[in-house]
Amino acid sequence: GCWIPLQRGKKTREILRQKGLLEDFLKEHHYDIGTKYARSFASQGVYEPLMNYFDTEYYGTIYIGTPPQGFNVVFDTGSSNLWVPSVTCQSLACQNHRMFNASKSSTYQSAGYNISIQYGMGSMAGVVGSDIVLLSTFIDTNQQLALATSEPGLTFAYTDFDGILGLAYPDIAVEGLIPVFDNLMIKNLVKQHLFSVYLDAKSQVFGSMLIFGGIDESYFTGPIHWIPVSYQGYWQISMDSIIVNGKVITCESGCQAIVDTGTSLLAGPASEVNNLQKVIGATPIQYGEVRINCNDIPSLPDIIFVINGIQFPLPPSAYTEQVGQGDCNSSFQATASYLWILGDVFIREYYSIFDRENNRVGLAKSV
Ligand SMILES: *[C@@H]1O[C@H](CO)[C@@H](O)[C@H](O)[C@H]1NC(C)=O
Ligand SMILES: *[C@@H]1O[C@H](CO)[C@@H](O)[C@H](O)[C@H]1NC(C)=O
Ligand SMILES: *[C@@H]1O[C@H](CO)[C@@H](O)[C@H](O)[C@H]1NC(C)=O
């Protein structure tokens, strides 16, 4: 295939040399994935293994440029831009991570303008460009991306990941940059216009998986429940109510939720989350932390999210985590937003399918 964009004025020999480098690299990369994750090639989809960092970050490796420079990125269904740190960035968060040197990539093209992206926590500012991105076995050419020249504060300073790869709708892509999954669809690289996510049970470093273009039934049991996307920005859906012990506790007349792999906890509007914390006997301590006595956990109720008429229970083992001797943390977090955020805490329980073809989210009980 002709996947190196032809560059005016480049000698053929140079182009072939670059192509050779990339091909060698790909063989090696493919081989690695093929042996470690043999099951990967059993079904239709293209598999991207995710690392689980203490249940708080799930990330995978991608490569950008020619020759390829490697980065760990969060595959974030709560945003739509791709960015990694730039070598020109002096921020601690950049210096602590792998940084992309654009001058070392013969296929990088600057777009000549700047960008800044705000997240729920943290922000970045940088420059816009495009390059080849290798993810799993995809060769994603002319991918628009941002290189961070500033990552203020400590939010990204000590993360295990270097950057973020957004998987939400183009509508929320800052500067209207074409998101990675859209580019894959435009170039007909995915068999089906959907991807799915399995986040492994607590504290398993390996085993989590993102599958582009496919659904793997070995990751769930029972039926897939399909829920229409209510607004095509985030992966946003309508929730009917939240039930505990047979009673509607909150979200009485319906509410909006997003399914977000980039948020580790389960977040919701402050007053509603505070209600929920009371029901499960969680006591606020300082700095927004909410404690539960670990001994109480076996007697705590399931929290049931009712979505599209279907009940999705979350058992106490899922919504609590041990943080010290006898001390457990509630995994519910209050935010200033009106949206509920069904983060990793929820996705660990429910294999999630993000269907762009039919604009719906599929949820099925994880194995
Ligand atoms: C980036 O790459 C160029 C070209 O190889 C090199 O001259 C420069 O020193 C590199 N910059 C950094 C900060 O490593
Ligand atoms: C882009 O940001 C850099 C700092 O990172 C600044 O020097 C430059 O002037 C900005 N360019 C534009 C077009 O705003
Ligand atoms: C406990 O939960 C809160 C949110 O409720 C979170 O901010 C904090 O980091 C958690 N603490 C630990 C040690 O995980």
Automatic annotation (TrEMBL):
State the PROSITE patterns in the record: ASP_PROTEASE, PEPTIDASE_A1
What are the Peptidase A1 domain coordinates in residue numbering? 58-364
Does the entry annotate any disulfide bonds, and if so which pairs? C89-C94, C251-C255, C294-C328
This entry's Gene Ontology molecular function terms read: aspartic-type endopeptidase activity
Residue numbers annotated as active site: D76, D260
**InterPro entries membership:** Aspartic_peptidase_A1, Aspartic_peptidase_AS, Aspartic_peptidase_N, PEPTIDASE_A1, Peptidase_aspartic_dom_sf
Keyword list, A-Z: Aspartyl protease, Disulfide bond, Hydrolase, Protease
An example Gene Ontology biological process: proteolysis
Q: Is-annotated flag, keyword Protease? A: yes
Q: Which family does it belong to?
A: Belongs to the peptidase A1 family.
Please give the name of this protein.
Answer: Embryonic pepsinogen-like
The record lists the lineage as:
Eukaryota, Metazoa, Chordata, Craniata, Vertebrata
Q: Which gene encodes it?
A: LOC109317479
